[in-house]
């Protein structure tokens, strides 16, 4: 089951419950549950009230403290009273939370309609044009209060803000509700086991016991219903904290609000580390432990044979394991009764079943561990596939450190619980249910009493899980930031050393790990607290069992062996429950990591490299029609504002202009790293958007400004991505790029390893290898983005020679971001770019005669050359990309 990943408006990241209808349906569902519970509760209590019963007559003569406390007569009016009290308090709180939820969610909904105020590229979904809400001031109905909500620093309506101000207040209320339910649970439990039904009224006796059972069962449900209240509050907050909303109407503040809204929207649109495609931000669906469980199971499905084998072993070991306490109890009974033959048989059976259990347990463990390891591998592969296919826009908004963290930390955190979850959950679930049934078969009253502690334990675990999930999500994000800081520092280690900023980098790294550690410690404290309270409750249950079970033994209504069997089953239930809980808790912890992993595994890129029409050979006719573009990380800064350009087949087009004019961006769009925001790019008359990117790239060669090398040999770098090649071809390409000679001077020749990102080569050498790589592919369209920028004058001349040769061969369309005037001068067409558009276009001579930007550009550079020659120093102004190393005259 995959998570849906849909587009979001650029302004808002919605997650989970986001609209009023959903909030209302949640509310209805939960209120329905509460009402049903209340009806069961009241009917049981009133039925018991009318049933002939009394406090256990065996205790009638006692006059201790507890006896006076629990000195019930025939009626159980106290039960009724408690039911009503509890129902009123819990429902009242839930209702209050829900009412606020509605109000605020409706405000949010209305606020979304205010999108007409937002600039078109920052619009929210939904539209009701007849309202013009504002951020500050009063609404036309005078009801709404300032309501501009961001992830942090939420500014909500007064009542709601007050309600949520100080989470301690909320926690106290929740704790009180929990306490109320728990106390009542204990009270009803103690009272019910003490009921004695008049045996002369047989019908009443049976019914009474049934109602008694249902009433005690409903207690468990009641305590869990407390979570209803928590959910209402949490959902309300989620709705509010995830919506960007405005609610007011006041004309004189419209402009201010627009700016504020656009600013907030930009904040979200440019947020780093968020999932984005070429078309904008994407929704990362929440992964809670249930979803995680489902995904884990679907991942493990591929190992069906091993899993089936493991389940078979599990079934055998669980069944024989469940019988062990029975043997242990009856061995004790036979020992007490001095029944030697039966004693011997039972001992033999115990040994046989112990051996069987151990054997199948070990096999089960082995199978599940192997499955776990395979799942980890599948997950790692899928994540890497998911990451590498993302749009370039996604990589603009993230760091390699963050991605490495996902590939390492997050994947192993996610896979770790899967490892033992498979083996643990099912085994313990079987043990839990089996022991539960067997406990009831021994004594239902004893079971009822013992289970009164179950609901509080479940509640505490659930509260901790909720809290811990959020905390761990933040912890993993901090770890990713630490990773990012480390890889950035290590990637730029020369700059760090040159500027002696080691301490700065260490502090940066430490601050992240420290924050992550603090969150981990908080989690450890909370975990220890939850475990401690659960252990106490557990011990309390054991005391109850021994107290009530012991009195049953003393009355002769239960054998000592059965009491021991019960105790053993109870321990089994406890340990099975705790194991399940610790798996669920680790699932909770891992859910944060899972969200980060699965969001990427599921996210499909907007520009899918393998879809679209496949072209085998491109002619090389390029047309840009009114192309507009802005980068997502800077949506307010249009880079191309309407570029129209036609480069015919076999033509050479030089893009020149000031730095930042958008020349490289044109090259990026031609490579389809991004799609234009408006306008079209046509290749041989085909809209580039409809062509298969992979097939287009086979026909295109790009040499970019920043040469990218892999940490392998020179040969592997030159032939990168080619399934077949001959050494002759490779050497020819290297010769063409004037790289062969320097390569052969290395002792290992083409086998020389270049180090990470080619650090063992000079910039010029790297660039020549990149050119050789491109030449070997013999592309129909060459894109040269300042391909010789890192070369010294001598090697630049050599490389330029190679490029000129290639260009002069003809038949290839070349788009080059100009670096040398000689190349520019010879180009079939020169396009001068300024502020995102082509301001002049033509041949060198025509442009010089035009006396416009091009001429100014050239003239300024000529002056610069003269100044440099006169002063004998280099100019530090590199802002123009037409080099002056050649004279144009
Ligand atoms: N990935 C990116 N995200 C956001 N903005 C970007 C990105 N890449 C480039 N820009 C911005 O886009 C504008 C155009 O950049 P571009 O690299 O196309 O200019 P250029 O004309 O090639 O400059 P130069 O001659 O210096 O290489 C610049 O203002 C730059 O800051």
Automatic annotation (TrEMBL):
Sequence ranges assigned to domain ABC transporter in this UniProt record: 622-860
Compartmental location: Membrane
Entry GO CC: cytoplasm; membrane
Membrane recorded as keyword: yes
Coiled-coil ranges per UniProt: none
Main location: membrane
Residue ranges of domain ABC transmembrane type-1 in the record: 310-589
Membrane-topology annotation of the record: Multi-pass membrane protein
Transmembrane segments: 31-49, 79-102, 172-190, 210-234, 304-327, 347-367, 425-443
Origin: domain of life: Eukaryota
Annotated protein name in UniProt: Uncharacterized protein
Organism this protein belongs to: Riccia fluitans
């Amino acid at each position: 089951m995959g998570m849906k990943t849909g587009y979001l408006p650029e302004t808002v990241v919605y997650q989970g419950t986001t609209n009023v209808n959903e909030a209302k349906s949640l509310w209805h569902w939960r209120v329905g549950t509460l009402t049903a519970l209340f009806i069961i509760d009241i009917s049981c209590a009133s039925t018991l009230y009318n049933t002939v019963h009394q406090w256990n007559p065996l205790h009638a003569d006692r006059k201790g403290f507890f006896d006076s406390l629990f000195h019930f007569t025939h009626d159980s009016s106290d039960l009724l009273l408690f039911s009503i009290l509890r129902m009123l308090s819990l429902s009242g709180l839930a209702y209050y939370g829900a009412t606020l939820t509605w109000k605020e969610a409706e405000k949010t909904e209305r606020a979304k309609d205010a999108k007409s105020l937002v600039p078109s590229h920052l619009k929210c979904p939904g539209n009701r044009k007849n309202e013009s809400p504002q951020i500050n001031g009063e609404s036309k109905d005078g009801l709404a209060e300032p309501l501009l909500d961001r992830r942090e620093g939420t500014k909500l309506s007064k009542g709601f803000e007050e309600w949520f101000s100080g989470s301690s207040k909320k926690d106290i209320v929740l704790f009180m509700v929990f306490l109320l339910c728990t106390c009542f649970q204990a009270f009803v439990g103690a009272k019910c086991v003490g009921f004695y039904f008049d045996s002369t009224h047989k019908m009443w006796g049976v019914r009474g016991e049934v109602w008694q059972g249902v009433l005690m069962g409903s207690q468990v449900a009641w305590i869990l219903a407390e979570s209803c209240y928590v959910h209402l509050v949490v959902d309300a907050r989620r709705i509010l904290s995830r919506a960007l909303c405005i609610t007011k109407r006041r004309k004189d503040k419209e402009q201010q609000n627009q700016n504020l809204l656009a600013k907030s929207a930009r904040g979200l649109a440019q947020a780093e580390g968020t999932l984005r495609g070429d078309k904008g931000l994407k929704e990362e669906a929440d992964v809670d432990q249930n979803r995680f469980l489902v995904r884990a199971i679907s991942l493990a499905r591929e190992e069906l044979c091993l899993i089936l084998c493991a389940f078979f072993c599990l079934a055998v070991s669980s069944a024989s394991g469940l019988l062990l306490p029975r043997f242990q109890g009856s061995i004790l009974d036979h020992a007490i009764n001095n029944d030697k033959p039966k004693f011997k048989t039972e001992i033999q059976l115990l040994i046989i079943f112990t051996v069987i259990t151990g054997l199948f347990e070990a096999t089960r463990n082995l199978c599940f561990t192997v499955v776990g390891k395979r799942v980890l591998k599948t997950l790692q592969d899928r994540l890497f596939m998911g990451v590498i296919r993302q749009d370039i826009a996604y990589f603009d908004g993230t760091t390699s450190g963050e991605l490495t963290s996902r590939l390492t930390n997050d994947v192993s955190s996610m896979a770790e619980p899967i490892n033992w979850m498979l083996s643990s959950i099912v085994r313990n679930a079987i043990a839990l249910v089996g022991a539960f049934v067997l406990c009831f078969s021994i004594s239902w009253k004893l079971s009822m009493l013992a289970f009164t502690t179950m609901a509080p334990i479940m509640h505490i675990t659930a509260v901790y899980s909720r809290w811990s999930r959020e905390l761990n999500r933040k912890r993993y994000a901090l770890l990713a930031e630490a990773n990012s800081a480390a890889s950035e520092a290590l990637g730029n280690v020369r700059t760090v050393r040159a500027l002696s900023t080691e301490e700065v980098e260490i502090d940066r790294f430490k601050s992240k790990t420290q924050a992550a550690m603090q969150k981990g410690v908080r989690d450890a404290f909370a975990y220890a607290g939850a475990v401690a309270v659960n252990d106490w409750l557990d011990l309390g249950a054991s005391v109850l069992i021994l107290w009530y079970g012991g009195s049953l033994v003393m009355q002769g209504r239960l054998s000592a062996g059965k009491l021991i069997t019960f105790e053993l089953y109870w321990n089994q239930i406890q340990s099975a429950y705790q194991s399940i809980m610790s798996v669920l808790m680790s699932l909770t912890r891992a859910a944060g990591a899972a969200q980060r992993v699965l969001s990427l595994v599921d996210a499909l890129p907007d520009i899918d490299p393998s879809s679209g029409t496949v072209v085998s050979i491109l002619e090389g006719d390029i047309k840009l029609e009114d192309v507009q573009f802005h980068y997502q990380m800077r949506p307010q800064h249009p880079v191309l504002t309407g570029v129209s350009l036609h480069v015919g087949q076999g033509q050479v087009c030089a893009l020149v202009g000031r730095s930042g004019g958008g020349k490289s961006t044109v090259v990026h769009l031609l490579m389809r790293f991004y799609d234009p925001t408006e306008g079209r790019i046509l290749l041989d008359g085909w809209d580039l958007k409809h062509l298969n990117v992979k097939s287009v790239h086979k026909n295109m060669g790009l040499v970019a400004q920043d040469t990218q090398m892999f940490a392998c040999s020179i040969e592997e770098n030159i032939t990168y991505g080619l399934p077949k090649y001959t050494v002759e071809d490779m050497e020819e390409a290297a010769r063409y790029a004037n790289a062969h000679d320097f390569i052969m001077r290395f002792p290992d020749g083409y086998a020389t390893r270049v180090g990470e990102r080619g650090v063992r080569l000079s910039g010029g050498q790297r660039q020549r290898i990149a050119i050789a790589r491109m030449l070997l592919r013999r592309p129909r369209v060459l894109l040269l983005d300042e391909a010789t920028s890192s070369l010294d004058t001598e090697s630049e001349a050599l490389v330029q020679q190679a490029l000129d040769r290639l260009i002069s061969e003809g038949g290839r369309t070349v788009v080059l971001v100009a670096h040398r005037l000689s190349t520019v001068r010879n180009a079939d067409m020169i396009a001068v770019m300024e502020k995102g558009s082509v301001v002049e276009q033509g041949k060198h001579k025509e442009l010089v005669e035009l006396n416009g930007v091009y001429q100014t550009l050239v003239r300024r550079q000529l002056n610069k050359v003269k100044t440099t020659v006169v002063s004998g120093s280099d100019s530090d102004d590199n802002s123009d990309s037409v080099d002056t190393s050649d004279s144009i005259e």
